[in-house]
Design brief:
The chain is built from 15 helices and 35 strands. By secondary structure, the chain is α+β, with helices and mostly antiparallel strands. The protein has 4 domains: 5-193, Rossmann fold, CATH 3.40.50.300; 206-290, Translation factors (Elongation Factor Tu (Ef-tu), domain 3), CATH 2.40.30.10; 391-475, Alpha-Beta Plaits; 487-562, OB fold (Dihydrolipoamide Acetyltransferase, E2P), CATH 2.40.50. The strands form 6 sheets. Strands 18, 19, 20, 21, 22, 28, 30, 32, 33, 34 and 35 form an 11-stranded mixed beta sheet that branches. A hairpin with a 2-residue loop joins strand 23 and strand 24. The radius of gyration is 27 Å and the shape is globular. The N and C termini lie far apart (71 Å).
């Protein structure tokens, strides 16, 4: 036992305040000088994490409290990054379950809590944001208890401590009428409730690699918890996989411990601590890094399979190579292979010709984050519409089903139910949630939810909140109607002209603005009818030497409809692609030439 150490993970639904709470814990534990400028959400270090306000990668940190070292792991809250959560829980001896005082337990709360209970961890429950005007703390406590019971928690797990907090304001209390000053009650509860690591200090060194990242100075870095023994810099180790086969033999060139948000080099690491090691080139997540005498791998939970995939190919549009620096299939292949090595929640497959790559993941957000990351690194590529991954059980085709929890104003509930019924969803629960809100629960096929977010926000006038979580595989539900409206397709290559756009506005919603570059076969808008329509957005006004009253009136353009990367991926039909470059996102037809499009359409219908 290592009494002077605690390992905890913070788990919650997305946007319930995990990262903000860790900020306050680090500030109050004396990690920073009083006059030191500290940014918000310190643990969300990636650009995409800062911009979107979500945690994508799990990250450890550590603080000192009353002479005890507390290692804290911040975990993602979005279901698409659930692969991170499952692995991270293996490093922890306890978890803090954070629940919003107004929203209560949400789909991802159920997902992460189920994983924690299955590993035998005893949670500390924090009802966060209790200072919100619509907080209902006591009701939420009852809902959390019901969730524990529904997930088959044992008696010890059901006897969880409850605290009330505001992570943003940096206070936590045992009772709601206590004085609200600091987070000391939480840290004291961690020391009392979370057991010290139960490890063998005298056994040969062994650790389970849980996270993998790359550092420009250290190379490949494996983060994990030392399960037994002690290791020193330059010692020989071997990596073995879950089947017990040797992956590689090497030396520990660097050992690092976490100190706040930094990694600090040390000469020795001991059982129970969460550390980062460098020096191995082939070992990956779920491998056991151990002394040469160790032959038995440490158990690791298998990762849930991906449920959705996209096909990524080289950009072959007329503007290819004009905006990005990495444009070849070899560069794209190497980057995707590197991602698949680091991110075990995605899968990589390539075509026989090695010119297209199928990437599987948990959902549209995870795949979108990968594409956005590559875009920022200077890649140019084309992306297909996401498709669900089926599996065959006893000769029957089965598809992934998601649990969809929707909170919506009661006035819009019928529109939402109607829209999801058309997408083969089945309603499993509906109840009023107070303040004129209704909570509706559906079981819906994943393919029916592709592209639904935009329609949902339109139907609910932007007031609805939708959360999704993988539920199970079920028999194929039949055909689902896709996008009803056709596309407006450019007939020529050049620069869009305001005069042409003005005259085409009544044909549908436009995606391009004045002076924007377009090419033949590019989708420049959504037709207000079901068929595709080819239009000329380059046609300027004919100039004559006759001036008549009214001919020189200024044209007034409606603001073009701008879609995000994930919106565009979900919007396209099977015969369309998304062109992604560092500077632009363009929708296009798979076949740019209109004659080739007709030929391929005839061939498919035959």
């Amino acid at each position: 036992m290592s009494e002077q150490m605690r390992n905890i993970a913070i788990i919650a639904h997305v946007d319930h305040g995990k990262t903000t709470l860790i900020d306050s814990l680090m500030k109050q534990s004396g990690m920073f000088r009083d006059n030191q400028q500290v940014s918000e959400r310190l643990m969300d270090s990636g650009d995409l994490e800062k911009e979107r306000g979500i945690t994508i990668l799990a990250k450890p940190t550590s603080i000192e409290w009353q002479g005890v070292r507390i290692n804290i792991i911040d975990t993602p809250g979005h279901a698409d990054f659930g692969g991170e959560v499952e692995r991270v829980l293996q490093m922890a001896d306890g978890v803090i379950l954070l629940t919003d005082a107004a929203e209560g337990p949400m789909p991802q709360t159920k997902f992460v809590l189920g994983k924690a209970l299955a590993q035998g961890l005893c949670p500390i429950v924090i009802i966060n944001k209790v200072d919100k005007s619509d907080a209902r703390s006591e009701e939420v406590v009852d809902e959390v208890f019901d969730l524990f019971v529904a997930l088959d928690a044992n008696e010890q797990q059901l006897d969880f401590p409850i605290l009330y907090a505001s992570g943003r304001d940096g206070w936590c209390v045992v009772n709601l009428d206590d004085e609200r000053t600091t987070l000391s009650p939480l840290l004291d509860t961690v020391l009392r409730h979370v057991p010290a690591p139960d490890v063998e200090v005298d056994a040969p060194f062994a650790m389970l690699a849980t996270l993998l990242d790359s550092d420009q100075f250290l190379g490949r870095c494996l983060t994990g918890r030392v399960m037994q023994g002690t290791a020193r810099v330059n010692e020989a180790v071997r990596a073995i996989n879950l089947e017990g086969k040797q992956v590689e033999v090497g030396r520990l060139t660097k050992l690092l411990r976490f100190d706040g948000t930094s990694r600090v080099p040390v000469n020795e690491v001991k059982a129970g601590d969460i550390v980062c090691i460098a020096g191995l080139t082939k070992a990956s997540v779920s491998d056991t890094i151990a002394a040469p005498s160790v032959t038995t791998p440490i158990f690791s939970t298998p990762i849930d399979p991906p449920t959705m995939s996209v096909t990524i190919t080289v950009n072959d549009s007329p503007f290819a190579g004009t905006e990005g620096s990495k444009v070849t299939s070899t560069m794209i292949r190497e980057r995707l292979l590197a991602e698949a090595e680091v991110n075990v929640a995605i899968t990589f497959q390539e075509s026989a010709a090695k010119d297209s790559f199928e990437i599987g993941g948990r959902g549209e957000l995870q795949l979108g984050v990968l594409v956005e990351t590559m875009r920022r690194e200077g890649f140019e590529l084309t992306v297909s519409r996401p498709k669900v991954l089926y599996k065959t059980v006893d000769g029957q085709r089965q598809e992934p089903i998601e649990e969809v929890i929707i909170d919506v104003d009661s006035d819009y509930s019928s529109a939402v139910i109607d829209a999801l019924n058309k997408r083969k969803a089945e309603m499993s629960d509906m109840r009023t949630a107070g303040s004129g809100k209704t909570r509706i629960v559906f079981l819906a096929p994943s393919r029916g939810l592709i592209g639904f977010q935009g329609k949902f926000l339109t139907d609910t006038r932007g007031t609805g909140v939708m959360n999704r979580l993988f539920h199970s595989y079920a028999p194929f539900k039949g055909d689902i109607t896709g996008r009803r409206n056709g596309a407006l397709i450019s007939t020529d290559t050049g620069v869009a002209v305001a005069y042409a756009l003005f005259n085409l506005q009544d044909r549908g919603a436009l995606f391009v603005s004045h002076q924007e570059k377009v090419y033949q076969g590019m989708i420049v808008g959504e037709h207000n009818r079901e068929n595709d329509l080819e239009i000329n957005v380059l046609k300027g006004k004919k100039l004559t030497n006759v001036r008549a009253s009214g001919t020189d009136d200024a044209v007034t353009l409606v603001t073009p409809r701008k879609l995000s990367l994930e919106d565009m991926m979900a919007y396209i039909n099977p015969d369309e692609l998304l062109e992604v470059t560092p500077d632009s996102l363009r929708l296009r037809k798979k076949y740019l030439d209109p004659n080739e499009r007709k030929r391929m359409a005839r061939a498919e219908s035959a």
